[in-house]
């Protein structure tokens, strides 16, 4: 039996976990989500979700990975033979995400290049949709778009390179470079953004609390959705990563560090994005609320427009899209590692073979999004992942562990035996009762919204 790969150091593991957590969710999902759900008041449900669901689940996943030293499917089957499918199901969700995440990274690579000389011209929206993506009424897929295809291939080369080199020399090495670089880039962007005219109005809009929203269930759902997606919970990632931890590891502490680091990146991104939106509002004499956007629209339509109006626009644009690439790649590596580890164990094949099989299949599927119809497809798949995938995956996981296998006490014992902070009944209460109830409510509510 080959010895299980291990992280080179505690900081290596933490950087990889933070690298997985910090992604597009922090940069383009959090700011608008907070703004739309009560601004400053959103921090109450957000912190509640972080402390009662996000970090407790992270502790649980770290404990599972550390205790069973296996990928997600095998870990679940070691807890209870009947639960292997829970792990496979998580792996499947990660697989699906890993087919469209590289597309967004590919766009960002091209936009980092377009930044130099602001090649998107006077009408960035039209440039993105018509010139760059060639979205046309060409049936469902249309033809392959070469300007997307080539950077996508580049992304997969990166992914294959780092994953092929293994846990320490590949994943850890990449994150040791990407995450510190990302932090530096973030800080430069935020400082620059804060010194733009109108920045203060942006921050004012972002932080101004609307306390009346606190009683609204949908605000709480938004907070939970953000926390789960943002912390990469219930996607088999954190179980896989923690399975490479050495025996002596303070897992509870690591979970707190990961959770707070991710939220810090989120707050920083919120400040940066809204300072820039404040500048946009100032330039166009509109209220900030008129220019708020998120996701693809924010990054590839609104931001190029603002960037063009900034001093040193090429530099600033390059940094912004560069940060998307760094944040995206480190998350992408973590999603793909889930199925590589799972396939490797299940079929007793080498890492290289599992990578060829899993990564190869994901790469092939990803080409569907590199077509003229790709944007549409990406929107649809992303919608389902965000509205059902995240909550359902979390719900299935806690119910399986807490109620079906009744494994919480056992896991608590394991975590406590190696961690400084000891888990109390609060931990079991959060996972066994509070979180499943909220996630269940979330599923039903999203479903009712959709059929109405
Ligand atoms: N946590 C990442 C983010 O905030 C997104 C992600 C989700 C990454 C699921 C991997 C898997 O952007
Ligand atoms: Na995140």
Automatic annotation (TrEMBL):
Family matches, as InterPro entries: Na/ntran_symport (IPR000175), SNS_sf (IPR037272)
Membrane topology of the entry: Multi-pass membrane protein
Residue ranges of the TM segments: 12-31, 43-64, 85-114, 144-165, 177-200, 220-244, 256-282, 318-342, 354-371, 383-405, 425-444
Transmembrane helix in keyword set: yes
UniProt superkingdom: Bacteria
Statement: the UniProt record of this protein carries the keyword Cell inner membrane: no
Keyword terms of this UniProt record: Membrane, Transmembrane, Transmembrane helix, Transport
Main location as per UniProt: membrane
Signal peptide: none
A UniProt-annotated Pfam family: SNF
Subcellular location: Membrane
A GO term from the CC aspect: membrane
SUPFAM superfamilies listed in its UniProt record: SNF-like
Name this polypeptide is given: Neurotransmitter:Na+ symporter, NSS family
Species of provenance: Gracilibacillus ureilyticus
């Amino acid at each position: 039996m080959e010895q299980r790969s291990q992280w080179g150091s505690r900081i290596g593991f933490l950087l990889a976990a933070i690298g997985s957590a910090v992604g597009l969710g922090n940069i383009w999902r959090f700011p608008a989500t907070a703004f739309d759900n009560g601004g400053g008041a959103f921090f109450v449900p957000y912190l509640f979700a972080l402390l009662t669901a996000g970090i407790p689940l992270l502790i649980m996943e770290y404990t599972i990975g550390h205790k069973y030293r296996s990928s997600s499917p095998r870990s679940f089957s070691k807890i209870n033979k009947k639960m292997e499918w829970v792990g496979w199901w998580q792996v499947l969700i990660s697989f699906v995400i890993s087919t469209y995440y590289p597309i967004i990274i590919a766009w960002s690579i091209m936009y980092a290049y377009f930044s130099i000389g602001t090649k998107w011209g006077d009408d960035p929206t039209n440039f993105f949709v018509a010139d760059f993506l060639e979205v046309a009424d060409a049936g469902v897929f249309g033809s392959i778009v070469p300007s997307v295809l080539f950077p996508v291939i580049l992304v997969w080369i990166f992914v294959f390179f780092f994953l092929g080199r293994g846990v320490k020399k590949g994943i850890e090495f990449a994150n040791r470079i990407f995450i510190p670089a990302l932090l530096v880039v973030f800080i430069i962007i935020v400082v620059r953004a804060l010194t733009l005219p109108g920045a203060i109005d942006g921050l004012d809009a972002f932080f101004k609390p609307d306390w009346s929203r606190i009683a609204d269930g949908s605000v709480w759902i938004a907070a939970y959705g953000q926390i789960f997606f943002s912390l990469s919970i219930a996607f088999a990632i954190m179980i896989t990563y923690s399975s490479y931890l050495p025996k002596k590891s303070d897992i509870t502490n690591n979970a707190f560090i990961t959770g707070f680091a991710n939220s810090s990146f989120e707050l920083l991104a919120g400040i940066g994005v809204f300072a820039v939106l404040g500048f946009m509002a100032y330039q166009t004499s509109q209220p900030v609320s008129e220019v708020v956007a998120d996701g693809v629209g924010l990054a590839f339509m609104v931001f190029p427009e603002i960037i063009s109006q900034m001093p040193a626009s090429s530099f600033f644009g390059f940094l912004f899209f560069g940060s998307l690439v760094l944040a995206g790649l480190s998350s992408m590596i973590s999603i793909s590692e889930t199925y590589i580890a799972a396939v490797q164990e299940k079929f007793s094949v080498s890492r290289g073979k599992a990578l060829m099989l899993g990564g190869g299949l994901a790469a092939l599927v990803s080409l569907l999004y590199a077509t003229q119809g790709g944007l549409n497809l990406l929107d649809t798949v992303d919608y389902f992942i965000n509205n059902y995938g995240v909550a359902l995956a979390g719900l299935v996981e806690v119910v399986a562990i807490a109620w079906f296998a009744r494994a919480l006490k056992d896991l608590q014992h394991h975590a406590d035996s190696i961690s400084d902070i000891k888990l109390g009944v609060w931990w079991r209460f959060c996972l066994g009762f509070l979180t499943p109830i909220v996630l269940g409510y979330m599923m039903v509510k999203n479903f009712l919204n959709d059929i109405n």
